[in-house]
Design a protein that fits this description.
This protein is α/β, with parallel strands linked by helices. The chain is about 40% helix and about 15% strand. It contains 15 helices and 12 strands. The strands form 3 sheets. Strands 1-9-8-5-4-2-3 form a 7-stranded mixed beta sheet, with helices on both faces. Helix 1 runs antiparallel to helix 8, helix 2 runs parallel beside helix 8 and helix 9 runs parallel beside helix 14.
Length: about 400
């Protein structure tokens, strides 16, 4: 008689977890009011500018520049620090493709570095080893909402005269040593894409404490204009990357719940880590003491197949989903094994600039293990539940571990 749901038994959980996005009539009214105002572009209204101020303050940064999406935010942030063609930017290999794509889009060279297996963030020791005379920028990703080791990275950057561009796309509300991420490095980019902890379907924002960088980024986002210039005066080669007032209104409405949601995700994540750490073969990523708050865009743990009878990660994920726990195997490929890098499908100029780099020959062991064998994700919306909901996750994993031989045979 089977005991696991994947083999036909009763699952641990049959009711859904909290869904995403969370929305209310107030959100709809905020967008409706903006539409009825007739002020749809941010040059005419004040919603986007208010959002820029409020979100920057929430992350304890001085300046905010709202843009069309997170990729644009990172691309313009990189351009703002003055990259020149052929400059190198150090990036982690375990992250979303936009991190490396924005480097290429800036005519620079991404240099892939492995992750720390305990945090899945970029390994500072390996960052220092990767620096060459052509290195210009370190681009840490606050992966899953966990702040990277900004203390170590800032020390490295200062000693080698490098800029830090924070990829904070997943890190709304995250804090390192009491400071909101995004304003710790020189400049940063956040995403408001549909899955993010603060979202308007799409959108992004650049944050910085640096007045000069804020002026450059603002100009690059607005057709090369200058705050003290004519409306039809254009001072830089730039496009129109402005956010709409409807998005600004929706994000402002969503922000009224952000602090409460951040606290709940953080607390439920820490509780899950405490409970799951007791199950053999399950190792949640750790939250260093300096990471005062983990945004928990994802809850991430490492799976050890040996502790589950040799069952593959993919089959374990299937078993967990069958028990009513929505889980994902995460990224299946390191960035350097994505087709765009293997085929160098990024234009004639960058093909030539990267001609001697054999991306297919790269092998960063922790990133490889995370993709193929270990990393398992649970979505941020699940962490908006109650403690009892977290207990269901623990019960389901413990059940699979206890019945691992049945899983291995199935």
């Amino acid at each position: 008689m089977p005991h696991l749901a994947i083999n036909g038994a009763t699952p641990v959980r049959t009711i859904p977890f909290p869904t995403w996005p969370v929305y209310t009539e107030e959100d709809a009214q905020a967008v409706s009011d903006t539409i009825l105002s007739g002020k749809w572009g941010n040059s005419k209204g004040d919603r986007v500018h208010t959002l820029e101020d409020q979100f920057a303050a929430f992350q304890q940064a001085k300046h905010g520049i709202a843009v069309t999406n997170g990729t644009t935010a990172l691309n313009l942030a990189l351009q703002s620090v003055g990259l020149t063609p052929g400059d190198e930017v150090i990036v982690p290999a375990y992250t979303f493709i936009a991190t490396a794509n924005t480097v290429l889009m800036s005519n620079a060279v991404p240099v892939f570095v492995d992750i720390d297996p305990d945090t899945y963030n970029i390994n500072p020791d390996l960052v220092e080893q990767a620096i060459t005379p052509r290195t210009r920028v370190i681009m840490p990703v606050h992966f899953a909402g966990l702040p990277a080791d900004m203390e170590r990275l800032k020390d490295i950057a200062q000693r080698h005269h490098l800029a830090i561009v924070e990829d904070a796309a997943q890190a709304h509300g995250a804090q390192w040593n009491g400071m909101g991420v995004g304003g710790i490095g020189d400049i940063s980019g956040f995403s408001f894409q549909a899955s993010k902890n603060l979202n308007a379907g799409e959108g992004g924002i650049i944050l910085t404490d640096n007045d000069e960088l804020a002026g450059i980024a603002g100009s690059l986002a607005d057709c090369g204009r200058s705050d003290d210039g004519l409306w039809y005066g254009h001072y830089r080669l730039a496009g129109n990357h402005r956010m709409t007032e409807m998005q600004g209104a929706l994000l402002l409405s969503q922000m009224t719940r952000l602090e409460e949601q951040c606290k709940r995700r953080h607390e439920n994540g820490d509780y899950l880590t405490e409970q799951l750490s007791r199950i053999a073969g399950i190792s949640p990523t750790i939250r260093p003491g300096q990471a005062n708050r983990h945004a928990r865009h994802l809850y991430v743990f490492r799976y050890k197949a040996d502790a589950f009878g040799g069952t593959s990660k993919s089959k374990f994920v299937d078993a967990l989903n069958a028990e009513g726990i929505p889980a994902s195997p995460g990224y299946s490929l390191p960035l350097y094994k994505q087709p765009v890098f293997l085929e160098k499908n990024f234009g004639v100029y960058m093909q030539e600039a990267l001609r001697e780099i054999d991306f297919g020959a790269l092998n960063l062991p922790e990133t490889e293990k995370a993709c193929a064998d270990e990393a398992i994700w649970i979505s941020q919306s699940v962490l908006l539940g109650e403690k009892e909901d977290m207990d269901d996750i623990v019960r389901a994993i413990a059940k699979i571990r206890e019945r691992r031989q049945e899983l291995a045979r199935g």
